[in-house]
Amino acid sequence: xxxxxxxxxxPALRAEIDALDAELIRLFARRRAMIDxxxxxxxxxxxxxxxxxxxxxxxxxxxxxxxxNGLDPNLIGSIWRQLVxxxxxxxNRHLKGDSE
Length: 100
Prior knowledge:
Blueprint: H1 10-45, H2 52-68, H3 73-95
């Protein structure tokens, strides 16, 4: 056991952080399901997975929300760009009929 583990509030704080992480994962899973639905709509309308203006809009929105909440907008923008690129890859798999 380390000295930090001896701080009485630390185990409770860690439990809250773990619970929040689990909630974030559930939200990411919900987002992924919405990406699947977007891919279905794009397939019907013959739209590409990547729509550049929308990519930039999503990242700008995330960066703005980050700044409004006291977070580093550049860091969040970078994280969101990775998230969006993964979503585009997911949509491309669906559009090619290779869904997971």
